Amino acid sequence: MAARSTGEASGATRVLIVGGGYVGMYTALWLQRKLRTGEASVTVVDPQPHMTYQPFLPEAAAGSIEPRHVVVPLRRVLRRCHVLTGRVTGIEHARKAARVEMADGHLEEIGYDVLVVAPGSVARTMPIPGLAECGIAFKTIGEAIYLRNHVLTMLDMAASTIDPAVRRRLLTFLVIGGGYAGIEVLAELEDMARYATRYYENIEPSDLRWVLVEAANRIMPEVSPTLGVYTVERLLERKIEVYLQTRVESLVGGHVMLDEGTEFEADTIIWTAGVKANPMLANTDLPLDERGRVRCTADLRVHGLPGVFSAGDCAAVPDLSRTDQDPHATTSPSAQHAVRQAKVLAANVLAHLRDRPMRTYRHSYAGSVASLGLYRGVAEIYGIKLKGVLAWFMHRTYHVSRMPTLNRKARVLADWTLALFFRREIVSLGQIHEPRAEFARIATPPPHPAATGPPTTPNPATEAPAHLR
Q: N or C end of the chain: which has fewer CB within 10 A?
Protein backbone atom coordinates (compact mmCIF):
# COMPACT_ATOMS: atom_id res chain seq x y z
CA MET A 1 0.00 0.00 0.00
CA ALA A 2 1.43 3.33 -1.09
CA ALA A 3 1.59 6.32 1.24
CA ARG A 4 0.81 9.83 0.08
CA SER A 5 2.19 13.08 1.41
CA THR A 6 -0.23 16.01 1.26
CA GLY A 7 1.71 18.67 3.14
CA GLU A 8 2.31 21.83 1.13
CA ALA A 9 5.08 22.98 3.38
CA SER A 10 7.29 21.35 5.95
CA GLY A 11 5.58 21.44 9.33
CA ALA A 12 2.15 22.41 7.95
CA THR A 13 -0.75 20.80 9.80
CA ARG A 14 -2.37 18.10 7.66
CA VAL A 15 -6.17 18.34 7.62
CA LEU A 16 -7.95 15.34 6.08
CA ILE A 17 -11.64 15.66 5.20
CA VAL A 18 -13.36 12.34 4.52
CA GLY A 19 -16.32 13.08 2.26
CA GLY A 20 -17.02 15.83 -0.25
CA GLY A 21 -20.72 16.30 0.47
CA TYR A 22 -22.19 19.49 1.87
CA VAL A 23 -20.36 19.23 5.22
CA GLY A 24 -17.02 18.22 3.74
CA MET A 25 -17.05 20.69 0.87
CA TYR A 26 -18.24 23.61 3.00
CA THR A 27 -15.55 22.92 5.63
CA ALA A 28 -12.83 22.80 2.98
CA LEU A 29 -14.18 25.94 1.30
CA TRP A 30 -14.19 27.83 4.60
CA LEU A 31 -10.68 26.69 5.49
CA GLN A 32 -9.15 27.65 2.14
CA ARG A 33 -10.59 31.13 2.58
CA LYS A 34 -9.43 31.59 6.18
CA LEU A 35 -6.12 29.72 6.44
CA ARG A 36 -2.90 31.67 6.27
CA THR A 37 -0.26 30.62 3.77
CA GLY A 38 1.55 27.54 5.03
CA GLU A 39 -0.68 27.23 8.10
CA ALA A 40 -2.22 23.91 7.04
CA SER A 41 -2.79 21.69 4.03
CA VAL A 42 -6.32 20.43 3.35
CA THR A 43 -7.09 17.16 1.57
CA VAL A 44 -10.61 16.15 0.57
CA VAL A 45 -11.36 12.54 -0.39
CA ASP A 46 -14.66 11.49 -1.98
CA PRO A 47 -15.71 8.80 -4.48
CA GLN A 48 -17.31 11.50 -6.65
CA PRO A 49 -15.55 14.61 -7.98
CA HIS A 50 -18.52 16.77 -7.05
CA MET A 51 -20.83 17.75 -4.21
CA THR A 52 -24.55 17.07 -4.74
CA TYR A 53 -27.16 19.36 -3.20
CA GLN A 54 -29.68 16.62 -2.48
CA PRO A 55 -32.80 18.76 -1.80
CA PHE A 56 -32.78 19.67 -5.51
CA LEU A 57 -32.66 16.05 -6.74
CA PRO A 58 -36.47 15.78 -7.15
CA GLU A 59 -36.55 18.85 -9.39
CA ALA A 60 -33.57 17.56 -11.35
CA ALA A 61 -35.40 14.26 -11.85
CA ALA A 62 -38.50 16.09 -13.09
CA GLY A 63 -36.56 18.34 -15.45
CA SER A 64 -37.19 21.62 -13.61
CA ILE A 65 -33.44 22.02 -13.04
CA GLU A 66 -30.58 20.92 -15.28
CA PRO A 67 -28.89 18.01 -13.40
CA ARG A 68 -25.41 19.52 -13.77
CA HIS A 69 -26.60 22.60 -11.92
CA VAL A 70 -27.33 20.75 -8.66
CA VAL A 71 -23.75 19.51 -8.35
CA VAL A 72 -20.65 21.55 -7.54
CA PRO A 73 -17.29 20.40 -9.02
CA LEU A 74 -14.94 20.00 -6.08
CA ARG A 75 -11.74 20.79 -7.98
CA ARG A 76 -13.23 23.98 -9.37
CA VAL A 77 -14.18 25.49 -6.01
CA LEU A 78 -11.44 23.95 -3.82
CA ARG A 79 -8.46 25.23 -5.76
CA ARG A 80 -6.25 25.57 -2.68
CA CYS A 81 -7.06 22.07 -1.43
CA HIS A 82 -5.94 18.61 -2.53
CA VAL A 83 -8.97 16.84 -4.01
CA LEU A 84 -8.65 13.08 -4.38
CA THR A 85 -11.25 10.96 -6.14
CA GLY A 86 -11.31 7.79 -4.09
CA ARG A 87 -13.18 5.87 -1.44
CA VAL A 88 -11.97 5.82 2.16
CA THR A 89 -12.28 2.18 3.23
CA GLY A 90 -11.03 2.52 6.81
CA ILE A 91 -9.52 4.84 9.40
CA GLU A 92 -6.95 3.89 12.03
CA HIS A 93 -6.85 6.91 14.29
CA ALA A 94 -4.37 5.27 16.62
CA ARG A 95 -1.84 5.75 13.78
CA LYS A 96 -3.61 8.81 12.32
CA ALA A 97 -3.94 7.14 8.95
CA ALA A 98 -6.77 6.53 6.50
CA ARG A 99 -6.92 3.77 3.88
CA VAL A 100 -8.14 4.94 0.48
CA GLU A 101 -9.10 3.01 -2.63
CA MET A 102 -8.30 5.42 -5.44
CA ALA A 103 -10.36 5.81 -8.62
CA ASP A 104 -8.03 3.57 -10.63
CA GLY A 105 -8.26 0.80 -8.02
CA HIS A 106 -4.90 1.07 -6.27
CA LEU A 107 -4.73 1.50 -2.49
CA GLU A 108 -3.07 4.35 -0.63
CA GLU A 109 -2.62 5.38 2.97
CA ILE A 110 -3.02 9.04 3.90
CA GLY A 111 -1.71 10.44 7.16
CA TYR A 112 -3.28 13.39 8.96
CA ASP A 113 -3.04 15.61 12.02
CA VAL A 114 -6.66 16.85 12.05
CA LEU A 115 -9.50 14.67 10.80
CA VAL A 116 -13.00 15.65 9.63
CA VAL A 117 -15.29 12.63 9.23
CA ALA A 118 -18.17 13.47 6.89
CA PRO A 119 -18.87 10.51 4.56
CA GLY A 120 -22.63 11.09 4.89
CA SER A 121 -25.23 8.37 4.69
CA VAL A 122 -26.45 5.63 2.39
CA ALA A 123 -29.91 4.26 1.73
CA ARG A 124 -31.25 2.19 4.62
CA THR A 125 -32.38 -1.11 3.14
CA MET A 126 -34.39 -3.99 4.58
CA PRO A 127 -34.38 -7.74 3.90
CA ILE A 128 -37.32 -7.58 1.47
CA PRO A 129 -37.19 -10.24 -1.26
CA GLY A 130 -36.59 -8.62 -4.64
CA LEU A 131 -35.60 -5.18 -3.31
CA ALA A 132 -31.96 -5.37 -4.40
CA GLU A 133 -32.94 -6.54 -7.89
CA CYS A 134 -35.91 -4.22 -8.55
CA GLY A 135 -35.47 -1.16 -6.31
CA ILE A 136 -34.08 2.22 -7.33
CA ALA A 137 -32.68 4.46 -4.58
CA PHE A 138 -32.76 8.26 -4.67
CA LYS A 139 -29.57 9.64 -3.17
CA THR A 140 -27.36 10.61 -6.10
CA ILE A 141 -27.57 12.73 -9.24
CA GLY A 142 -27.05 9.58 -11.29
CA GLU A 143 -30.15 8.01 -9.74
CA ALA A 144 -32.15 11.18 -10.39
CA ILE A 145 -31.16 11.20 -14.08
CA TYR A 146 -31.87 7.49 -14.36
CA LEU A 147 -35.33 7.84 -12.81
CA ARG A 148 -36.31 10.64 -15.17
CA ASN A 149 -35.27 8.65 -18.23
CA HIS A 150 -36.79 5.47 -16.82
CA VAL A 151 -40.24 6.98 -16.19
CA LEU A 152 -40.39 8.52 -19.66
CA THR A 153 -39.17 5.25 -21.20
CA MET A 154 -42.03 3.44 -19.44
CA LEU A 155 -44.46 5.81 -21.18
CA ASP A 156 -42.81 5.12 -24.56
CA MET A 157 -43.04 1.37 -24.05
CA ALA A 158 -46.62 1.53 -22.80
CA ALA A 159 -47.63 3.54 -25.87
CA SER A 160 -46.18 0.82 -28.08
CA THR A 161 -47.46 -2.38 -26.47
CA ILE A 162 -50.71 -4.10 -27.38
CA ASP A 163 -50.78 -6.27 -24.24
CA PRO A 164 -53.04 -4.62 -21.61
CA ALA A 165 -51.35 -6.44 -18.70
CA VAL A 166 -47.91 -5.29 -19.80
CA ARG A 167 -49.27 -1.77 -20.27
CA ARG A 168 -50.68 -1.67 -16.72
CA ARG A 169 -47.36 -2.86 -15.32
CA LEU A 170 -45.38 -0.26 -17.28
CA LEU A 171 -47.66 2.54 -16.11
CA THR A 172 -47.56 1.56 -12.42
CA PHE A 173 -45.06 3.47 -10.28
CA LEU A 174 -44.36 2.60 -6.63
CA VAL A 175 -42.62 4.85 -4.08
CA ILE A 176 -41.70 3.25 -0.74
CA GLY A 177 -41.11 5.75 2.08
CA GLY A 178 -43.12 8.81 3.03
CA GLY A 179 -40.42 11.15 4.29
CA TYR A 180 -39.34 14.33 2.54
CA ALA A 181 -37.42 12.51 -0.19
CA GLY A 182 -40.24 10.10 -0.96
CA ILE A 183 -42.99 12.71 -1.06
CA GLU A 184 -41.01 15.17 -3.18
CA VAL A 185 -39.78 12.65 -5.75
CA LEU A 186 -43.29 11.16 -5.98
CA ALA A 187 -44.91 14.58 -6.46
CA GLU A 188 -42.36 15.84 -8.97
CA LEU A 189 -42.24 12.69 -11.11
CA GLU A 190 -46.03 12.30 -11.10
CA ASP A 191 -46.32 15.93 -12.18
CA MET A 192 -43.85 15.35 -15.02
CA ALA A 193 -45.45 12.08 -16.18
CA ARG A 194 -48.94 13.54 -16.16
CA TYR A 195 -47.72 16.51 -18.23
CA ALA A 196 -45.97 14.16 -20.67
CA THR A 197 -49.16 12.21 -21.42
CA ARG A 198 -50.44 15.12 -23.56
CA TYR A 199 -47.90 14.09 -26.18
CA TYR A 200 -49.06 10.46 -26.34
CA GLU A 201 -52.11 9.62 -28.44
CA ASN A 202 -53.07 6.54 -26.45
CA ILE A 203 -52.09 7.41 -22.86
CA GLU A 204 -54.29 9.48 -20.58
CA PRO A 205 -53.37 10.79 -17.12
CA SER A 206 -55.93 8.36 -15.68
CA ASP A 207 -53.90 5.46 -17.12
CA LEU A 208 -51.01 6.25 -14.75
CA ARG A 209 -51.00 4.54 -11.38
CA TRP A 210 -48.83 6.05 -8.64
CA VAL A 211 -48.64 4.30 -5.26
CA LEU A 212 -47.06 5.48 -2.00
CA VAL A 213 -46.37 3.00 0.81
CA GLU A 214 -45.34 4.20 4.29
CA ALA A 215 -44.85 1.98 7.34
CA ALA A 216 -45.72 4.75 9.85
CA ASN A 217 -49.19 6.17 10.45
CA ARG A 218 -48.30 9.53 8.85
CA ILE A 219 -46.05 11.05 6.24
CA MET A 220 -43.33 13.70 6.60
CA PRO A 221 -42.91 13.56 10.39
CA GLU A 222 -40.82 16.75 10.18
CA VAL A 223 -43.96 18.87 9.64
CA SER A 224 -47.04 19.18 11.84
CA PRO A 225 -49.73 16.47 11.65
CA THR A 226 -52.09 19.03 10.11
CA LEU A 227 -49.76 19.63 7.15
CA GLY A 228 -49.16 15.90 6.89
CA VAL A 229 -52.90 15.33 6.51
CA TYR A 230 -53.13 18.20 4.03
CA THR A 231 -50.35 16.63 1.94
CA VAL A 232 -52.11 13.26 1.86
CA GLU A 233 -55.35 14.95 0.79
CA ARG A 234 -53.56 16.70 -2.08
CA LEU A 235 -51.99 13.42 -3.19
CA LEU A 236 -55.35 11.67 -3.12
CA GLU A 237 -56.84 14.49 -5.22
CA ARG A 238 -54.26 13.63 -7.85
CA LYS A 239 -55.42 9.98 -7.77
CA ILE A 240 -52.24 8.84 -6.02
CA GLU A 241 -52.85 5.78 -3.85
CA VAL A 242 -51.53 6.21 -0.31
CA TYR A 243 -50.99 3.24 2.02
CA LEU A 244 -50.12 4.21 5.60
CA GLN A 245 -49.14 1.76 8.35
CA THR A 246 -48.35 -0.68 5.56
CA ARG A 247 -45.21 -2.68 4.87
CA VAL A 248 -43.90 -4.25 1.70
CA GLU A 249 -43.50 -8.02 2.01
CA SER A 250 -42.07 -8.91 -1.40
CA LEU A 251 -40.92 -7.29 -4.65
CA VAL A 252 -39.70 -10.38 -6.47
CA GLY A 253 -39.80 -9.90 -10.22
CA GLY A 254 -41.68 -6.63 -9.83
CA HIS A 255 -44.64 -8.39 -8.21
CA VAL A 256 -45.47 -6.16 -5.25
CA MET A 257 -47.03 -7.73 -2.16
CA LEU A 258 -48.17 -5.52 0.73
CA ASP A 259 -48.82 -6.89 4.22
CA GLU A 260 -52.48 -5.82 4.11
CA GLY A 261 -53.11 -8.09 1.12
CA THR A 262 -52.79 -5.80 -1.89
CA GLU A 263 -50.80 -7.19 -4.83
CA PHE A 264 -49.87 -5.63 -8.16
CA GLU A 265 -47.15 -5.55 -10.82
CA ALA A 266 -44.77 -2.60 -11.23
CA ASP A 267 -41.67 -1.97 -13.30
CA THR A 268 -40.76 1.17 -11.35
CA ILE A 269 -39.99 0.77 -7.63
CA ILE A 270 -38.41 3.78 -5.90
CA TRP A 271 -36.92 3.19 -2.44
CA THR A 272 -36.73 6.20 -0.11
CA ALA A 273 -37.36 4.50 3.25
CA GLY A 274 -34.74 6.28 5.30
CA VAL A 275 -30.95 6.47 5.49
CA LYS A 276 -28.20 5.05 7.66
CA ALA A 277 -24.68 6.18 8.44
CA ASN A 278 -22.03 5.23 5.91
CA PRO A 279 -21.03 1.60 6.66
CA MET A 280 -17.37 2.54 6.20
CA LEU A 281 -17.43 3.84 9.77
CA ALA A 282 -17.52 0.25 11.03
CA ASN A 283 -13.96 -0.09 9.70
CA THR A 284 -12.59 2.59 12.00
CA ASP A 285 -11.52 2.85 15.63
CA LEU A 286 -13.78 5.87 16.18
CA PRO A 287 -16.50 5.66 18.87
CA LEU A 288 -19.87 4.79 17.32
CA ASP A 289 -23.41 4.75 18.71
CA GLU A 290 -25.92 1.92 18.35
CA ARG A 291 -26.93 3.24 14.89
CA GLY A 292 -23.37 3.22 13.57
CA ARG A 293 -22.92 7.01 13.78
CA VAL A 294 -19.82 8.75 15.15
CA ARG A 295 -20.38 9.92 18.74
CA CYS A 296 -19.87 13.67 18.96
CA THR A 297 -20.00 16.42 21.54
CA ALA A 298 -22.08 19.56 21.05
CA ASP A 299 -19.08 21.38 19.51
CA LEU A 300 -18.88 18.62 16.85
CA ARG A 301 -15.72 17.03 18.18
CA VAL A 302 -15.61 13.24 18.31
CA HIS A 303 -15.89 11.93 21.86
CA GLY A 304 -12.48 11.54 23.51
CA LEU A 305 -10.43 12.24 20.37
CA PRO A 306 -8.87 15.73 20.18
CA GLY A 307 -8.47 16.94 16.63
CA VAL A 308 -11.23 14.74 15.22
CA PHE A 309 -14.50 16.31 14.08
CA SER A 310 -17.72 15.05 12.50
CA ALA A 311 -21.11 16.37 11.39
CA GLY A 312 -24.00 15.59 9.08
CA ASP A 313 -25.85 12.32 8.56
CA CYS A 314 -22.99 10.18 9.88
CA ALA A 315 -22.69 12.01 13.22
CA ALA A 316 -24.60 11.53 16.48
CA VAL A 317 -24.66 15.17 17.63
CA PRO A 318 -26.50 16.11 20.86
CA ASP A 319 -29.68 18.05 20.07
CA LEU A 320 -29.43 20.79 22.69
CA SER A 321 -32.91 22.01 21.81
CA ARG A 322 -34.38 18.72 23.11
CA THR A 323 -31.97 17.49 25.78
CA ASP A 324 -34.15 18.99 28.53
CA GLN A 325 -36.80 16.42 27.68
CA ASP A 326 -34.46 13.66 26.50
CA PRO A 327 -30.81 13.77 27.67
CA HIS A 328 -29.84 11.35 24.88
CA ALA A 329 -31.56 13.22 22.03
CA THR A 330 -29.46 13.61 18.88
CA THR A 331 -30.03 15.54 15.68
CA SER A 332 -31.78 13.76 12.82
CA PRO A 333 -30.07 13.01 9.47
CA SER A 334 -31.53 15.87 7.44
CA ALA A 335 -30.26 18.48 5.01
CA GLN A 336 -31.29 21.24 7.42
CA HIS A 337 -28.95 19.95 10.13
CA ALA A 338 -26.12 19.29 7.66
CA VAL A 339 -26.29 22.83 6.32
CA ARG A 340 -26.21 24.42 9.77
CA GLN A 341 -23.67 22.05 11.31
CA ALA A 342 -21.29 22.63 8.42
CA LYS A 343 -20.86 26.28 9.39
CA VAL A 344 -20.13 25.45 13.04
CA LEU A 345 -17.78 22.62 12.16
CA ALA A 346 -15.76 24.73 9.73
CA ALA A 347 -15.36 27.49 12.32
CA ASN A 348 -14.39 24.97 15.03
CA VAL A 349 -11.72 23.30 12.90
CA LEU A 350 -10.15 26.71 12.35
CA ALA A 351 -10.48 27.48 16.08
CA HIS A 352 -8.74 24.17 16.88
CA LEU A 353 -5.85 25.03 14.55
CA ARG A 354 -5.45 28.41 16.25
CA ASP A 355 -6.10 27.33 19.84
CA ARG A 356 -9.25 29.37 20.21
CA PRO A 357 -12.59 28.65 21.96
CA MET A 358 -15.10 26.58 20.03
CA ARG A 359 -18.81 27.07 19.37
CA THR A 360 -21.52 24.59 20.23
CA TYR A 361 -24.17 23.57 17.76
CA ARG A 362 -27.67 24.36 18.94
CA HIS A 363 -30.47 23.77 16.51
CA SER A 364 -33.06 26.54 16.45
CA TYR A 365 -36.07 25.17 14.61
CA ALA A 366 -37.22 27.70 12.03
CA GLY A 367 -39.54 25.42 10.12
CA SER A 368 -39.80 22.98 7.24
CA VAL A 369 -40.59 23.31 3.55
CA ALA A 370 -41.49 20.71 0.94
CA SER A 371 -42.43 20.77 -2.72
CA LEU A 372 -45.46 18.81 -3.98
CA GLY A 373 -44.79 19.45 -7.65
CA LEU A 374 -44.93 22.57 -9.80
CA TYR A 375 -46.63 25.48 -7.95
CA ARG A 376 -47.61 23.24 -5.03
CA GLY A 377 -46.01 22.85 -1.63
CA VAL A 378 -46.32 22.86 2.13
CA ALA A 379 -44.32 24.89 4.63
CA GLU A 380 -44.23 25.65 8.33
CA ILE A 381 -42.14 28.74 9.13
CA TYR A 382 -41.91 29.82 12.77
CA GLY A 383 -45.23 28.15 13.48
CA ILE A 384 -46.98 29.70 10.48
CA LYS A 385 -48.46 27.05 8.16
CA LEU A 386 -48.36 27.77 4.43
CA LYS A 387 -49.85 25.79 1.56
CA GLY A 388 -49.93 25.89 -2.22
CA VAL A 389 -48.02 28.40 -4.36
CA LEU A 390 -46.64 30.46 -1.46
CA ALA A 391 -45.24 27.37 0.27
CA TRP A 392 -43.75 26.19 -3.02
CA PHE A 393 -42.09 29.60 -3.46
CA MET A 394 -40.72 29.42 0.10
CA HIS A 395 -39.29 25.97 -0.63
CA ARG A 396 -37.43 27.24 -3.68
CA THR A 397 -36.27 30.42 -1.95
CA TYR A 398 -34.85 28.59 1.06
CA HIS A 399 -32.97 25.96 -0.90
CA VAL A 400 -31.50 28.26 -3.52
CA SER A 401 -30.18 30.39 -0.66
CA ARG A 402 -28.40 27.31 0.74
CA MET A 403 -27.06 26.15 -2.62
CA PRO A 404 -23.25 26.53 -2.45
CA THR A 405 -21.48 29.00 -4.76
CA LEU A 406 -22.87 31.97 -6.64
CA ASN A 407 -22.29 30.12 -9.92
CA ARG A 408 -24.75 27.35 -9.03
CA LYS A 409 -27.29 29.74 -7.51
CA ALA A 410 -27.35 31.72 -10.76
CA ARG A 411 -27.70 28.62 -12.92
CA VAL A 412 -30.59 27.24 -10.87
CA LEU A 413 -32.37 30.61 -10.99
CA ALA A 414 -31.84 30.72 -14.75
CA ASP A 415 -33.42 27.25 -15.11
CA TRP A 416 -36.47 28.36 -13.15
CA THR A 417 -36.77 31.62 -15.09
CA LEU A 418 -36.63 29.89 -18.48
CA ALA A 419 -39.27 27.42 -17.29
CA LEU A 420 -41.71 30.32 -16.88
CA PHE A 421 -41.55 31.05 -20.62
CA PHE A 422 -41.03 27.62 -22.19
CA ARG A 423 -42.78 24.30 -21.81
CA ARG A 424 -41.36 21.50 -19.69
CA GLU A 425 -38.83 19.24 -21.41
CA ILE A 426 -39.96 15.61 -21.58
CA VAL A 427 -37.12 14.09 -23.59
CA SER A 428 -35.97 10.64 -22.50
CA LEU A 429 -32.24 10.06 -22.87
CA GLY A 430 -32.35 6.41 -21.89
CA GLN A 431 -29.44 5.57 -24.20
CA ILE A 432 -27.01 7.16 -21.76
CA HIS A 433 -27.46 4.16 -19.47
CA GLU A 434 -26.21 1.75 -22.18
CA PRO A 435 -24.22 3.99 -24.53
CA ARG A 436 -22.46 1.12 -26.33
CA ALA A 437 -25.53 -1.03 -26.99
CA GLU A 438 -26.26 0.29 -30.50
CA PHE A 439 -22.61 0.30 -31.53
CA ALA A 440 -22.16 -3.26 -30.24
CA ARG A 441 -25.19 -4.35 -32.29
CA ILE A 442 -23.86 -2.99 -35.56
CA ALA A 443 -20.22 -3.87 -34.85
CA THR A 444 -20.88 -7.53 -34.09
CA PRO A 445 -20.18 -9.48 -37.31
CA PRO A 446 -23.08 -11.53 -38.66
CA PRO A 447 -22.84 -15.34 -38.39
CA HIS A 448 -20.63 -16.93 -41.06
CA PRO A 449 -22.66 -18.73 -43.74
CA ALA A 450 -20.85 -21.97 -42.94
CA ALA A 451 -22.24 -21.83 -39.39
CA THR A 452 -25.83 -21.90 -40.66
CA GLY A 453 -25.35 -24.40 -43.49
CA PRO A 454 -25.38 -23.91 -47.27
CA PRO A 455 -28.11 -21.78 -48.80
CA THR A 456 -31.04 -23.73 -50.12
CA THR A 457 -32.21 -23.45 -53.73
CA PRO A 458 -35.97 -23.17 -54.23
CA ASN A 459 -37.57 -26.05 -56.06
CA PRO A 460 -39.69 -24.61 -58.89
CA ALA A 461 -41.89 -27.67 -58.78
CA THR A 462 -42.91 -27.12 -55.17
CA GLU A 463 -42.29 -23.45 -54.41
CA ALA A 464 -43.90 -20.63 -56.30
CA PRO A 465 -42.31 -17.18 -56.54
CA ALA A 466 -43.15 -14.98 -53.57
CA HIS A 467 -45.43 -12.66 -55.54
CA LEU A 468 -47.57 -15.64 -56.66
CA ARG A 469 -47.97 -17.36 -53.27
A: C
